[in-house]
């Protein structure tokens, strides 16, 4: 419902038309067309309140990151325990192999049979591989489960965010948090946590056995590994910062690309493909730079670990060989120690890699957490959800009800404290009558629609639906009473039937045929291959603007609303179709009340009541002829459109 919040006094207009996304209500373009938010940063949401405090007070330590990831997987503890046990079991089988190898070497040196030991060694190897494979599958499945839960939560949250949040964030970036960020997080929860635990335990086991075999050689290994640990620790903070920068840049790529594709006809007409490509290319380059920095730090970290382990291996080989020659140890002891030293590479590498991966994953999780902490509209209860799908006006608005469909009483509203939009508006939409809102752009007409749809709450004053205060009704109950035909009509991917029945998915064919006739879509249905079953393409690209508007009207009428909100219903229609729609609107008032915004006064001059808005106030109210005599503001509008008396307009 993009056009509902497109008053010039509201933080919306230009980007709403060019992006096509739900971020439209908040961004205004700079000289290059890039959206700016309230803090002036292009394409970046301002951090305020809770988010700002969390950003400044964020604990970036590895311990805090591990604790956060542990809490994230709380619902999958059983899978983690099973995977950890299997991984540790496989590692234990691996740790036993050097001891068996030591026995093989010593048995061969003493002339004893080695075949039983070799068979045991092979069996240990096969069991280790099988156990590790099962453990890895359990982990991967657990990771997918965590990501599935996060994505469900993100999708539900994004679809229910307070409208003000879309003023602060770009839709492409929010979508990126649901896709790219959760994908990165999957690798963390599926591997890093268990690798950190099992790697540390396996490394500890290997070190204990090495201590048992030769303490002196172990000291040499510990010194080289400690050197690598110091290097890794110094790199972790940089890896996390670079990862956060990269994820933010990826989100910006999605936002800018969604903006350009949403306005592709305008982009091509103005030959702006290269400019848009250059703008998005800057985001791509920023992501590349951050990715390269992350890779640079990671490339230093991995060799540091490998060189430390390989260096310790060489020290063990040289010094251990000398000690064997000096008869301080047997050849089997040296072989076992060397195997443990080489075996230590994998768990140590997994520990260091897991720590780095957790730090990268925290950058993605913090972006996800920001979305989950954004204020959202409350979810409807079971009774409200059931009522919202009920068809038929009698279910929500009995015919005998005398109360007005909508009343605004001294309503004040501002999108920002210093930008008042409505200044004490009072108006009434009587039962089964047509009321028109007219006035210059920015007078507050679309904001009245936004309040009627409960996208925002008034700063003061009251709204009443069917005589009941809005504060006594849930948003779901209020919206169940209304339907909206937006100026920027929305056609979703699917068939003509899918679009008309969007609000009432289980509608009967007779009801669909009724609204097709009311909206005068018979010719379109006859022309389209497959009729109502014809796919309409992305954003209804196969339809004209007027046809899309009539599809939206049919969709609204099918829900049998108590109040129909029409925003510029004739803006895309020619004179013939405008007259036809005017006739349709008269017929609609036999079913429901109608509140219509119109700049073309010829559309609404026969309305039951016309409300003239100016500078956020309702300055006049009456019939067309009456207002021509009593309202200077209305006379000015009429004069500009060359409307005289009750004759038709040329606008």
Describe this structure in words.
Helix 5 packs antiparallel against helix 6, helix 6 packs antiparallel against helix 11 (345-373) and helix 16 (509-518) crosses helix 18. This protein has four domains: 1-41, no CATH class; 49-373, ABC transporter type 1, transmembrane domain (ABC transporter transmembrane region fold, Up-down Bundle); 404-481 and 563-571 and 581-651, P-loop containing nucleotide triphosphate hydrolases (Rossmann fold); 489-560, Rossmann fold. The protein has a six-stranded mixed β-sheet with strand order 8-9-10-5-11-12, with helices on both faces. It is elongated, with a radius of gyration of 34 Å. It starts with 12 loop residues before the first helix and ends in an 11-residue tail after the last helix. Helices cover 59% and strands 10% of the residues. It has 651 residues and is α/β, with parallel strands linked by helices. Mean pLDDT is 74; it is low at 1-57, 385-401 and 643-651. Keywords: ATP-binding, Cell membrane, Membrane, Nucleotide-binding, Transmembrane, Transmembrane helix, Transport. Residues 81-360 form the ABC transmembrane type-1 domain. It is a multi-pass membrane protein. Residues 38-47 have a biased composition (Low complexity). It holds the Pfam family ABC_membrane.
């Amino acid at each position: 419902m993009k056009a509902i919040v497109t008053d010039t006094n509201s933080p919306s207009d230009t980007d709403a038309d060019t992006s096509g996304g739900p971020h439209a209500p908040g961004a205004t373009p700079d000289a290059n067309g890039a959206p700016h938010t309230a803090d002036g940063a292009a394409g970046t949401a301002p951090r305020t309140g809770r988010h700002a405090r969390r950003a400044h007070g964020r604990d970036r330590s590895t311990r805090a990151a591990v604790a956060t990831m542990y809490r994230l997987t709380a619902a999958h503890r059983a899978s983690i325990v099973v995977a950890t046990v299997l991984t540790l079991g496989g590692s234990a089988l691996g740790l036993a192999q050097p001891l068996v190898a030591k026995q093989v070497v010593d048995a061969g040196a003493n002339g004893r049979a080695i075949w039983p030991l070799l068979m045991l060694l092979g069996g240990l190897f096969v069991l280790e591989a099988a156990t590790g494979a099962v453990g890895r599958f359990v982990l991967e499945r657990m990771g997918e489960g965590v990501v599935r839960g996060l994505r469900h939560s993100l999708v539900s949250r994004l679809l229910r965010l307070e409208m003000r949040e879309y003023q602060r964030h770009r839709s492409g970036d929010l979508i990126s948090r649901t896709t790219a960020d959760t994908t990165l997080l999957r690798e963390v929860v599926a591997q890093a946590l268990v690798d950190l635990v099992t790697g540390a335990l396996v490394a500890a086991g290997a070190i204990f056995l090495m201590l048992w075999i030769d303490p002196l050689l172990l000291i040499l290994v510990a010194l080289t590994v400690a050197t690598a640990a110091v290097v890794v620790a110094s790199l972790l903070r940089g890896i996390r910062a670079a990862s956060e920068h990269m994820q933010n840049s990826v989100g910006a790529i999605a936002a800018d690309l969604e903006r350009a594709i949403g306005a592709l006809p305008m982009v091509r007409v103005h030959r702006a493909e290269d400019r848009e490509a250059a703008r998005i290319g800057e985001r791509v380059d920023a992501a590349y730079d951050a990715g390269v920095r992350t890779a640079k730090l990671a490339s230093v970290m991995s060799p540091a670990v490998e060189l430390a382990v390989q260096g310790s291996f060489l020290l063990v080989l040289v010094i251990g060989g000398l000690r064997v020659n000096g008869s301080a140890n047997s050849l089997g002891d040296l072989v076992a120690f060397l195997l443990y030293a080489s075996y230590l590479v994998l768990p140590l590498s997994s520990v260091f890699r897991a720590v780095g991966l957790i730090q990268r994953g925290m950058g993605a999780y913090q972006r996800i957490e920001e979305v989950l902490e954004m204020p959202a509209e409350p979810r409807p209860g079971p009774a409200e959800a059931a009522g919202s799908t009920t068809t038929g006006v009698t279910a929500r608005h009995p015919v005998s009800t005398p109360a007005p469909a909508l009343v605004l009483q001294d309503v004040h509203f501002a999108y920002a404290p210093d930008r008042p939009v409505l200044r004490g508006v009072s108006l009434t939409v009587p039962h089964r009558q047509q009321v028109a809102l007219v006035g210059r752009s920015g007078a507050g007409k679309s904001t009245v629609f936004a309040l009627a749809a409960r996208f925002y709450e008034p700063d003061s004053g009251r709204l009443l639906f069917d005589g009941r205060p809005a504060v006594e009704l849930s948003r779901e109950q209020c919206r169940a009473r209304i339907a909206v035909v937006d100026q920027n009509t929305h056609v979703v991917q699917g068939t003509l039937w899918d679009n008309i029945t969007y609000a009432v998915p289980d509608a009967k064919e007779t009801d669909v045929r009724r609204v097709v006739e009311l909206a005068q879509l018979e010719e379109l249905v006859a022309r389209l291959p497959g009729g109502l079953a014809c796919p309409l393409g992305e954003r209804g690209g196969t339809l004209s603007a007027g046809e899309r508007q009539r599809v939206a009207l049919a969709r609204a009428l099918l829900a049998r609303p108590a109040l129909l909100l029409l925003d510029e219903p004739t803006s895309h229609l020619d004179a013939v179709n405008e007259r036809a729609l005017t006739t349709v609107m008269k017929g609609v008032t036999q079913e429901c009340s109608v509140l219509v915004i119109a700049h073309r006064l010829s559309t609404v001059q026969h309305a039951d009541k016309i409300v003239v808005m100016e500078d956020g106030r309702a300055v006049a109210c009456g019939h067309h002829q009456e207002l021509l005599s009593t309202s200077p503001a209305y006379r000015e509008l009429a004069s500009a459109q060359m409307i005289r008396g009750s004759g038709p307009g040329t606008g």
